[in-house]
Amino acid sequence: MNFQLNSLSDTHTLAGLIAEVIVPNFVITLNGDLGAGKTTLVREILQAMGVTGSIKSPTFTYVEPYHLDYIDIFHFDLYRFSSADEWLDMGFDEYFINPHLCFIEWAEKANGLIPEMDWDITLSINNEIHSCRITAHTNKGQECLKSLMKAGVSLLN
Ligand SMILES: Nc1ncnc2c1ncn2[C@@H]1O[C@H](COP(=O)(O)OP(=O)(O)OP(=O)(O)O)[C@@H](O)[C@H]1O
Ligand SMILES: [Mg+2]
């Protein structure tokens, strides 16, 4: 499913819709070139979910945690991993036990070790237009994507 994001305002709108359709225990991987808009989209989703305060890119910390009443949210950026084993060394498997929502930039750096992946979001820029492709990999992901498609008709292309 492809969404065209002509401006940051479209990203804001899509993020608000994503925040409404995703459910606890959901894992989203984010792909796309440097600067394609991965962190911006995650930041907007977190704000729409009620996270307050600064939302930093996890590039240098690998993960930034956020805690809401009903869910733990983790935003990973694995760009600096030198090998996939670091995923286990850092104990990241344990982040998937309690009710969680995980966003993972550069997930391919942990090749094969990430437990469940419900959506992949690929961000790209063509002729200066940002776009966002969402692919579901689980039944739960498929159900949430259907809801998103209904809600986000105006952004579909
Ligand atoms: N839909 C959009 N329209 C216009 N500009 C955008 C859009 N989405 C993101 N940007 C801008 O693109 C820039 C880079 O975004 P961002 O840092 O989110 O990229 P990234 O994919 O996380 O990069 P990295 O791989 O370095 O982590 C930011 O300045 C952001 O404001
Ligand atoms: Mg980023």
Could you explain the architecture of this structure?
The protein has 157 residues and is an alpha/beta fold. The protein has one domain (2-155): 3-Layer(aba) Sandwich (Rossmann fold). It has four helices and seven strands; from the N terminus they run βαβαββαβββα. It has helices spanning 8-21, 38-49, 86-89, 139-151; strands at residues 2-5, 26-31, 63-68, 71-77, 100-105, 119-126, 129-136. A seven-stranded mixed beta sheet has the order 1-7-6-2-5-4-3. Helix 1 (8-21) packs across helix 2 (38-49) and helix 1 crosses helix 4. The chain is globular. The chain starts with a strand and ends in a 6-residue tail after the last helix. The model has no long low-confidence stretch (mean pLDDT 94). Adenosine-5'-triphosphate binds next to helix 1 and helix 2.
**Terminal Cα span:** 8 Å
Helix content: 25-40%
- Determine the CATH topology: Rossmann fold
What is the architecture at the second tier of CATH?
3-Layer(aba) Sandwich
What would you give as the CATH superfamily?
A: P-loop containing nucleotide triphosphate hydrolases
* SSE series: EHEHEEHEEEH
What binds here, in terms of ligands, is: adenosine-5'-triphosphate, magnesium ion
Q: CATH top level?
A: Alpha Beta
